[in-house]
Amino acid sequence: MFDNLSVKLDKAFKTLKGQGRITEINVATTVKEIRRALIDADVNYKVAKDVTDNIKEKALGQDVLIAVSPGQLLTKIVAEELTLLMGKSNEPINLLGDPNIILISGLQGSGKTTFSGKLANHLKSQRNVLLVACDIYRPAAIDQLKVLGEQIDVDVYAEPENKDALSIAKNALKYAKENNKKTVIVDTAGRLAVDEEMMREIESLKKNLNPAETLFVVDSMTGQDAVNTAKTFNERLNFDGVVLTKLDGDTRGGAALSIRTVVNKPIKFISHGEKMEALDLFHPDRMANRILGMGDVVSLVEKAQQNFDEEESRRIQKKIRKNQFGFDDFLSQLEQIKKMGNLKDLMGMIPGVGKAIKDIDIDDDSLKPIEAIIKSMTPSERENPDIINGNRKIRISKGSGTTVQEVNQLLKQFDQMRKMMKTMNKMGGAKRALQGMNLMGR
């Protein structure tokens, strides 16, 4: 996500490295590089020019403190400007109404149906949700929504033989009221391009359903075309918010940076990957930090809180305190980590790590050899890895399709992890260990 833009902005800031103060010359050179980076990322030219003009004005109007380098100051100013550009703060989805109706719009292939499933999954812990299949032109869309509904355990209302989208939506609302559904998510039809028939249909749905929220789903990979399409839809629909999808793809990020300014509507969600959990509320300040390689620890913690089971966490902590943490427990933790989303994206949220791993290919398959090795162990071996001798290692490697060296490496890393946990226990737990580190730093 935004890798190319991050690299080019980092290069621009290096222009100021070693400079003792901000001058009109060195700021002008850096700002020129920043503008070029934004335009290369497919940001609207006028938007890029306005932003960089603001950056230059703010930078030249500030004195640099002794403790702050010109590069650090400019990074801060750019972060603030990117945050303003993308909307300043998160704007939550409107959940008013009984039932609350959310209308999903966008072009075909933008990821509307997948997003509808993700949104239902996001809301189902708070509300009783109903998904409605109103794409009457693409039979696969109805089937896809049903599959997603089963996957996340959410009801789907569909009438495959009915070719009137408004009739389906009205019947779905009646069904929702009869079955105490508090939120109704209406997945509508898309087209390969904006056309009059599609616009009339989606306008009719909005007028008759009077949704609390109309969301426009846009494929980030289409770059500036996405912004132009959003503008056309907004002129006809006056939608309430934007959803950016496919942010895990080879996208230059320009749509995310331009769309708020061009249509004056907030980005409410970002979607990446096919997993139903891979949906995030859009926070402009956090996104700006990630673009600048400053990480996003807050989002990482929130993801962990959403996906980690509290009871399971307490059970694991109890085992750690008793020095009984085994491979079954480790496997359980891996499963919970995988629910949090793409591994590379997660690691990129840690400050400083994003730049270090930008050229490294990390995906969920990276964990498969580890899982295979653990699952090839017997219950007693998982509980007590110390009994794994040479013969057992050969059997485990054959059973998991890995090498003995890989088995040895995992056992060594696991042993080191257990020793660290044991040390933490002796120090009185992680909290006391951190307190000790803080004291040492004073």
* Number of helical stretches of at least 4 residues: 21
Distance between the termini: 37 Å
Mean of pLDDT: 80
Order of helices and strands: HHHHEHEHEHEHEHEHEEHHHHHHHHHHH
Fraction in beta strands = 5-15%
> Low-confidence runs (pLDDT<50, min 5 residues)?
429-442
Search tags:
442 residues, alpha/beta, Four Helix Bundle (Hemerythrin (Met), subunit A), Rossmann fold, 434 Repressor (Amino-terminal Domain), eight-stranded mixed beta sheet, 10% strand, flat, disordered C terminus
Note the topology.
Layout: H1 3-13, H2 24-40, H3 45-60, H4 70-85, E1 100-106, H5 112-123, E2 129-134, H6 139-152, E3 155-157, H7 165-178, E4 183-188, H8 196-209, E5 213-219, H9 224-237, E6 241-245, H10 254-263, E7 267-271, E8 279-281, H11 284-291, H12 297-307, H13 310-321, H14 327-339, H15 343-348, H16 353-356, H17 368-375, H18 379-383, H19 390-400, H20 404-426, H21 430-440
Parallel strand pairs: 1-4, 1-5, 2-3, 2-4, 5-6, 6-7
Antiparallel strand pairs: 7-8
Helix pairs in contact: 1-2, 2-3, 3-4, 4-11, 5-6, 7-8, 9-10, 17-19, 19-20
Task: Walk me through this protein's architecture.
The radius of gyration is 26 Å and the shape is flat. The protein is built from 21 helices and eight strands. The chain has helices spanning 3-13, 24-40, 45-60, 70-85, 112-123, 139-152, 165-178, 196-209, 224-237, 254-263, 284-291, 297-307, 310-321, 327-339, 343-348, 353-356, 368-375, 379-383, 390-400, 404-426, 430-440; strands at residues 100-106, 129-134, 155-157, 183-188, 213-219, 241-245, 267-271, 279-281. It is α/β, with parallel strands linked by helices and 442 residues long. Strand 6 (241-245), helix 10 (254-263) and strand 7 form a beta-alpha-beta unit. Helix 5 (112-123) packs parallel to helix 6. The chain has an eight-stranded mixed sheet, sandwiched between helices. Helices cover 57% and strands 10% of the residues. Residues 429-442 have low confidence and may be disordered. It has three domains: 3-85, SRP54, nucleotide-binding domain (Four Helix Bundle (Hemerythrin (Met), subunit A)), CATH 1.20.120; 100-294, P-loop containing nucleotide triphosphate hydrolases (Rossmann fold), CATH 3.40.50; 301-440, Orthogonal Bundle (434 Repressor (Amino-terminal Domain)), CATH 1.10.260.30.
